[in-house]
Specification:
Length: 138
């Protein structure tokens, strides 16, 4: 497992949201986005482990972090244009891309009868990140 890539993606996402936020809230946005990525990935990983998943903690956090790439890309594209329709299309596409990539991984970790319990927190995690990208604009 490699945590440098997810750390870099998290830093890029936090910096882009920092530059996109109003100046009075920019430091809070940076901190909140950074914490949401790492705490969210940890909670999703712990949930999968508690459901009987046979995966290393850091391996799962690494995969979930790399699956944030589409959301990072969407945040950069939303920085270019502030149009609400454009933002909605780009963020929706990034949500589907990130969720699909991580659901394939998460669904293989647990028994088929517990698959939905493992996948649902993943959907919420990426929905929260996408909501931050969509709503934060200066």
């Amino acid at each position: 497992w490699d945590l440098w890539g997810p750390l870099l993606l998290c830093m890029i996402l936090s910096c882009v949201l920092y530059f996109n936020a109003p100046s009075s809230q920019s430091s809070w946005v940076f901190a909140a986005s950074f914490v949401v990525v790492w705490v969210g990935a940890a909670v999703v990983t712990l949930n999968a482990q508690l459901l009987g998943g046979k995966v290393s903690f850091f391996q799962s956090v690494c995969v979930l972090g790399y699956c944030c790439f589409p959301i990072v890309l969407a945040s950069i594209l939303c920085l270019i244009s502030g149009n609400a329709v454009w933002r909605a299309i780009v963020v929706s596409g990034s949500f589907v891309w990130a969720t699909r990539a991580s659901v394939v991984f998460m669904s293989q970790l647990v028994n088929p009868e517990r698959r939905l319990l493992a996948v649902y927190p993943t959907l919420l995690f990426y929905a929260m990140l996408c909501w931050m990208v969509f709503t934060i604009e200066g």
